[in-house]
Amino acid sequence: MIRPVLVLLTMSTLLACHSSRKAAAPNPPIDSYHYSIEKTVTGNKGAVVSAHPLASEAGVLVLKKGGNAVDAAIATQLALAVVYPGAGNLGGGGFLVAHLQDGKELAIDYREMAPSGSSRDMYIDKDGKARTDLSQDGHLASGVPGTVAGLFEAARYSKLSFKELIDPAIELAEKGFVITEREARSLNGIQQDLQQLNTRPNAFQKKDKWKAGDTLVQKDLAATLRRIREKGAAGFYEGETARLIVEEMQRGKGIISYADLKNYVARSRQPHRFDYKGYAVVSMPMPSSGGLLLHQMLKMIEGKDIATMGFHSPQAVQLMIEAERRAYADRAEYMGDMDFYKVPVAALTDKKYIADRMKDFTPGKASDSKIIGPGKAAAKESEETTHLSVIDGDGNAVAVTTTLNGGYGSRVVVGGAGFFLNNEMDDFSIKPGVPNMYGAVGGEANAIAPGKRMLSSMTPTIVLQNGKPYIVTGTPGGTTIPTSVFQTIVNILDFGLSAKDAVDKAKFHHQWLPDAVFVEKDFPAATQEALRKMGYKIDSRGDIGRVELIRVLPDGKFEAVADKRGDDSASGW
Ligand code: GLY
Description:
There is one protein chain. The protein is α+β, with helices and mostly antiparallel strands. It has a domain of about 325 residues. The chain is built from 21 helices and 22 strands. The strands form five sheets. The chain has an eight-stranded mixed sheet. Helix 13 crosses helix 15. The site of glycine has 11 residues, from loops.
């Protein structure tokens, strides 16, 4: 058996390697049987940070072949669809935000869409009960996948051929790769679901337990990737792959049709853009709430001198919690797919509105979500999403967050096609006021309608300094995504933390409802105690987010940091 070499390096400065590589040796292929996790990398040519070392390597490989950051983001996503099946995907959706060398900015929306056969009350039974089992598990939970269309929309800005970008993923699927301890545990955790929810055998099922060092080979997925290589997006949305998806739906009482697949379109939108203390923040607009929430939260604290309060001090944390509470109350009331619902973005970010929202903030005393409510002018998501950040030597920066929603999505693998389908329908408000997967609520703005895109929290974000990329970041984490990005940015811009500390230090989260502050286990006990005294309910929980961050240092080098919380890994030179 081949065992992976998983070496944890804290810092790897690869500049030296680069200068000694002048003789232009051909790029070695990715060795999927031996790889290491690198948490921090510096360089000045290019960098990729993602949830898996092999995916980050795939991105760097295409950068070294002359591709730009968009090429690398595409190759990394395709590789994640193979090596990170819990969230990397072909059967899900995502968002890409980019700031290109020439100043052009992109916000590509490839969020899943509700199938044409969907309806507002499709998850409500005859007794009026919300059937979250159906919106979360199995075939009916899936929206029409957007990822492949999104990759081709992004490819309009790439330099290399799509074939070159997809080849590493095909090889990883065909030859297999050794899995880590964490992946083995994760796959073992879904064996019962795989058994119950699937209509055909698949590569993820195993009689004995998966172990670190086992090789995961995905022949069906390799064949699907090859069809995409040959036929472009039609290799997924039409022909053989479409047939396999629709037949899977028919066997499992799902509703995605041939027409739904053929009609899916990725949309290029205007990024959500605003200033914070002289920096320009470029993030995702609706149907992600991420950019707008980030905007509201940063503006709610901008006028306060949070730096002098101190990092993780009770004063600073309380201020940020109250900003989070108010922004998330607005999310539940006002946010949804703007193609279907008029979201009052300008009103929600108006200077006076933001100031009014914080008027009843009392230092040292917890507000009450029963009284706060949305302003006059929260759906729960899964945390199994994944983010990648990329930068190249020409100054192109790309942030991508992509998801199946829950871990391994609906846990349905398309028979013969080898990829998991999403359970993104649960990100709609399936019944007003009924909490979904992570306890937040929504209403009319995010109700189901055929062709509508469910509200997201994904927050791929680029912060610009003097018009140039300074921070490229994002994270998985469902509703905790915007608060993690908020805290990471404040950690750097206000508290002056290093990129590594900004990513790794304990995070906290408030989302209006439930009215509680969630903190990671290593969150300072003294601050927790002080918050309790102010009237906050504190719930300790597992990891919050897995932030992937690239920062451009004053000398122009990149520092790429992968979150300590997973197998996440940085690669670059
Ligand atoms: N499913 C996670 C999100 O879109 O926010």
